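Researcher: I'd like a structural prediction for the single chain below. Treat it as a standalone chain; there are no partners to consider.
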Amino acid sequence: MYLQPKRRTAYIYWVYFALVTVLAVYLRFWFVASIPTEQLYDFNTYQEIAANIFKYHSHSLWGQPVAWQGMGYSTALGIFYILMGNAQVQTAQLFNCLLSTLSLPLMFLVFRKLSSHFGVVLGAYTIAALLPNHIAYNNVVGTEVFITFLFLIILVLQLYEFDNRFRYPLLGIFIGLAALTKPFFLAYPVVLALCHWLHSKDLRRTALMLISTSLLMAAVVSPWTIHNYKNFNSFIPVSYNSGYVLFINNNDQNVNGMWMPLENVPASPQLKKDIKRELNRNQDNVKLAPGLDKVLKPAAKQWIGENPGDFMKLGLLRLKQTFFSGAQDISAWAMNDFQSNPGQKESPRFKRNLNFFYGAADILVYILCSAGILYLLLNLGSIFKSLFSRDLTLSNAILVPSINTAFFLAVYFVFEGQPRYNFPLLFLFAITLGIIMHKTSQGLQRSES
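Model: Treating it as a single chain, here is the predicted structure.
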């Protein structure tokens, strides 16, 4: 049957969306089935805790209660293990694939609210759905896919308005779940309220949103906080690694803004004594030593206060490591046990194809991160004007990518930088790239005419 122009365009639009989605889902499941990887460091810890939840129904590590990391991902994974009847890594990869698949329509919903141009939406969706990072990280027993899924739900609830009696509590609940996964989301109600106020300039509704989402977030987080107080006799809202992370990333010996061994960080004789005492109490393992947080955090803050210039340099290096290191994290975490026969590994064709994949992923991540940060910089002026204006409102297309990017950049600037930390922002960077290209094309067309 002949389609009218608008109907034909809509038909092509949805067919293309469906084809990209099917291909994206296929690639996710194909990757975890075909490309093996070893779960290292924090990823192995998540796996061990989730397996303990499956076996003993307790959040523990090596027989001890633990709150080293946010408990959200390991607990959700442990529950999934119970439902599936096993705690194998392949089951964790299946869990990731399911969440990553559910994230696809959520990305599309977000993109449709941030741009009304179907070419921008479909282009951004194609990049985000087929992005090597979004495919490869399903292989990793880590928080990346899980926190991005929760973040997408938060953005959908933020962008799609319906009865606030339900919307605000839902926002608070999912922000709470995100905070239990990544503790810096405890500050996210402020980000949400800032976006809402700059978009509406309705102070009463903004205050209502801030209070209601904060209360519901606290209600979600508080049972875990109470659990931590009972187990560690200390107020630990989510996790106790922030002092450790701050200390090892901000000191005289840190030269790249990244992780370094605790024993290599210079410390006064008294601080060394305090560190040794806390480690001796807890099997000489930082992951089981909640008291280290109270010991290390003041020392880190003191160093930052005494060395503001070096802190700024390390912060900039952290942002460089996070956003301008390409996709090296894919080979390090998602393909580090890539198996093939020795002859194939030495084959020039094999090496060339593998390097092509890494190179293409590197270039794409560089482009996306550059677009996302450039988009923030281009909109900073408008955001500051709106902050000090009673009437100037801004669109969600400006606010949602820019304010969220600024929020993540601030966290990474202070604490730690790693290439994998850019993961939750890559889909937002995809839509900013599309918006920038579209606006640039419009400007060029106007200048030519």
